[in-house]
Amino acid sequence: MTPLTVAIIGRPNVGKSTLFNRLAGRRLAIVHDQPGVTRDRRFADGRLGDMALRLVDTAGLEEAPADALETRMRHQTERAMAEADVVLMLIDARTGVTPMDAHFAQVLRESPTPVVLVANKCEGGAGEAGLYESYGLGLGDPVPLSAEHGEGLALLYEALLPHEAALHERQAAAGEAGAPDGADAAGAEALPPDLEARAMAGAEDDAEPEPDDPGRPLNLAIVGRPNTGKSTLVNRLIGDDRLLTGPEAGVTRDSITVDWTHRGRPVRLVDTAGLRRKGRVTDSLEKLSVADTLNAIRLAEVVVLMMDADMVMDRQDLTIARMVVEEGRALVLAVNKWDAAADREATLRRVRDRLETSLAQVRGLPFVTVSALQGRNLDRLMDTVFEMHARWNVRVSTGRLNRWLAGMTGEHPPPMGKHGKRIRLRYMTQAKARPPTFAVFCSRPEDLPDSYVRYLVNGLREAFGFDGVPVRLFLRKSENPYAKG
């Protein structure tokens, strides 16, 4: 059965994200005392007892002018309400019912989506007065709850049971109507249910996945400095205004995951908050956003670094690029706002010069010029993403590696060690892919200079097509079988 889609709404700072994390069973949404932290819709699978839920965290409901950021946030919340099976409207029971609560309760009474009123922050009897006051909102009996402490979840379960039963009745009626040949109601490109669960969980399998597995979602993170067009890119790729955008810098605060299919291949897109220089990050909320972005990079397979064409490859761009490479992720550079670039030739020269001088450790790093706003060159960007993902997954047989190693050492033998004896490279194998990682067994690894290691890494790139992806090479000491004899 399809899980019950539950949208969690309310004015700012009533505990929506705390309840979202509680029902999801893990800390997904950023929680902070500052009002208005959540801006985009965030989805997650959750459970309440034996009830499967599809959770939607939303921005706080606020009245604002038509062109304000808060108004665009409210439009995202209204979409979540329209698509949900049931809405949980949260109020802060300790504060009591505010005029804003009453205003949006009126809006919800006119909505066709059923509503469950939740009086949050009722722990220890502190919200008893607000709980009784909330009966006057005309949304039925409120559910007393403490999302932070997990109190009242059994009452919430009972309140959701009738809505789950109604959903199952609708599904049964739709099943009797019949879908041709058992087709999925979501369409031909719908993901298998286990794939969606694996994507939302963000966990990697213990076994190494096959490089050409077309059913496994590709984890793609979009990162960069603030206001470089990351959310605009995601919206243009999926063909929907799914993410909040605007001229203001720093609109995105949470890392938002969007499941998408590109040419039949499932992709797990992750939009992230902009990364400023470390010295400028002083606000505690921004520190949480940065931590969320760094976690998205660690869980990604390919990372697209968005850069402004008129401020390309500055110090912060290079810092982010090095961070991605050090994490061992495949990296693609996207030079955005190309349609409005002031001097395209100078921008291309700067990118090439910076790649040669400052990112020489990933020789051959690709870059693509795009316009996220106008949708230009996005197919080429995605082709490059899949190409880099394929390189990142390559495995080389041990036989090929050792024949290659013999040729490399024959052409340029290792130098002499500290004791006047030549270092011998005896054996080589690939320890793992994702990123390509190799182990070389030699007589005295501590004496082998870094310049020779770079020679081997560059040779690996040239011989096996590892241009642009991180390559790790570890030296291991060979065991002498006669040492104990």
Topology readout:
Blueprint lengths: L3 E7 L5 H9 L17 E7 L2 E7 L11 H15 L2 E7 L6 H11 L5 E6 L7 H6 L9 E2 L8 H25 L15 H9 L16 E7 L5 H9 L17 E7 L2 E7 L12 H16 L2 E7 L6 H12 L3 E7 L7 H15 L8 E3 L8 H15 L5 H14 L13 E8 L4 E6 L7 H15 L7 E6 L8
Parallel strand pairs: 1-3, 1-4, 4-5, 5-6, 7-9, 7-10, 10-11, 11-12, 14-15
Antiparallel strand pairs: 2-3, 8-9, 13-14
GO molecular function, one term: GTP binding
Protein name: GTPase Der
Pfam families: KH_dom-like, MMR_HSR1
**Largest sheet descriptor:** 6 strands, mixed
- List low-confidence stretches: 178-211
Evaluate the radius of gyration.
Answer: 27 Å
Mean pLDDT: 81
Order of helices and strands: EHEEHEHEHEHHEHEEHEHEHEHHEEHE
Number of spatially distinct domains: 3
- Strand arrangement, major sheet: 2-3-1-4-5-6
Give the number of helices. Answer: 13
- CATH class membership of the largest domain: Alpha Beta
Strand count: 15
Alpha-carbon distance between the two ends = 67 Å
The CATH superfamily label of the largest domain reads: P-loop containing nucleotide triphosphate hydrolases
Q: What class do helices, strands and sheet pairing give?
A: alpha/beta
Fraction of helical residues:
25-40%
CATH architecture of the largest domain: 3-Layer(aba) Sandwich
User: Strand portion, in percent?
Assistant: 15-25%
